[in-house]
Recover the amino acids of this structure.
């Protein structure tokens, strides 16, 4: 016979803890955290810019095994989404004007680089596999 579920907790010490849904702003950003999130934001932006420059100016090598080019594309898209979410959620009211200008420049540089990384994949078969604008095998 199947046992009927009871309304009582399994253990005498277990209590039902109510939970509430939090907005994304409450979880990610508090007034004291924008300064802590700044290095991560700048690192993601710099990584996307450097990766874009590398893939535009350095010819691609041998083609990777089948799952790796998809993982590379997924990481590019995920970093682009994280960059946009961090820019949208983080409160920059505690920053001075110079920090805001640097943050804005890095945001747009990272965003444009992330979009270019995705668009490079659609320029040809070699670019689809290697992620580089120029295929280096035939040079």
């Amino acid at each position: 016979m199947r046992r009927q579920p009871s309304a009582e907790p399994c253990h005498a010490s277990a209590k039902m803890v109510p939970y509430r849904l939090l907005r994304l702003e409450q979880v990610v950003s508090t007034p004291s955290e924008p300064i802590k999130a700044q290095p991560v934001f700048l690192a993601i932006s710099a990584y996307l810019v450097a990766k874009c420059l590398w893939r535009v100016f350095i010819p691609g090598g041998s083609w990777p095994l089948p799952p790796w080019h998809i993982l590379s594309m997924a990481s590019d898209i995920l970093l682009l989404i994280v960059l946009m979410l961090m820019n949208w959620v983080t409160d920059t009211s505690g920053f001075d004007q110079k920090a805001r200008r640097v943050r804005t420049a890095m945001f747009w540089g990272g965003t444009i680089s992330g979009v270019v990384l995705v668009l490079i994949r659609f320029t040809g078969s070699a670019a689809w596999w290697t992620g580089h604008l120029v295929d280096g095998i035939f040079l």
